[in-house]
Amino acid sequence: MSKKVGLALGGGGARGLSHIGILKVFEREHIPITQITGCSIGAIIGGLYAYLGSAEQVREYILKMISDPMYDELNIQLFASMDRSDRHFFFEGRLQNLKMYFSLLKTIRTPSVFSAEAVDKIFRLYPDTDLSSLKIKFATIATDLISGREIVIDEGSLRQAVRASSSIPGFFPPVKMEHMLLVDGAATDSIPVQIVRGQGAQYVIAVDVSKCINDIGTLETGLQVIYRAEDIVSHHLTQERIAGVDYLIRPEVGHYSWADVGKMDEIIAAGEQAAQKAIPDIKRMLGCK
Prior knowledge:
Blueprint: E1 5-9, H1 18-28, E2 35-39, H2 41-52, H3 55-66, H4 69-74, H5 87-91, H6 94-105, H7 116-123, E3 137-144, E4 150-153, H8 158-165, E5 175-177, E6 180-184, H9 193-198, E7 203-207, H10 222-241, E8 247-249, H11 264-286
Parallel strand pairs: 1-2, 1-7, 2-3, 7-8
Antiparallel strand pairs: 3-4, 3-6, 5-6
Helix pairs in contact: 1-3, 1-11, 2-3, 2-8
């Protein structure tokens, strides 16, 4: 079959680990993927898959990254409680919360919670190869803080492209590229459906791993209100961006925090379940037997 099938992998932090499960099923069911465009975690997973060509190898690579001592030093797990609806969970552990808020206070005088040096050490494990050399055509999207534009990165360094697309504003430092200052692509396009289409895909399969809009939680602190407002903006942007997609997969991961990397296996399993349910429709759409 010569049909050009593109994947648009959305952003959503740890929820995007479900992309691995979806890719596993696509491999097993022989769904041909000719190109991938990813945003944020979708860029991280999609880039690795375009480089390795194996979902299981992607899982092993991610596990290696999050098991690295430098990743532990970032203490990203401290922020897993920030968008949980359980009030007791949010306030338990005084020492943990002191560490979290101390980290957030850094943004008053520095561009991000985590330094460029710390992020460099984490991304040293990510493949640093040219985008033109990948097994599958791949691109990422990022947001330019200077012009406010969505930026498509489809040439140059894979590592730099992925790092730019996944630089969560306030948490990870912006990436300087030419005259631009790039951060997470989700600020302008959480699921890059139209980018995949514009790059030649005949069929576009999108994966939405955004937080469930119905998971409101408590709204008793300023941070909780900010998070809720961001969720609403993200929801409406996502609905606009997925218009025209040929098939949309929504794994049941909306209840996880963006920082829940410790639940990697169950999030991947949720992706597998969602993809397996979608296979009959996708095969029918593509004319597969």
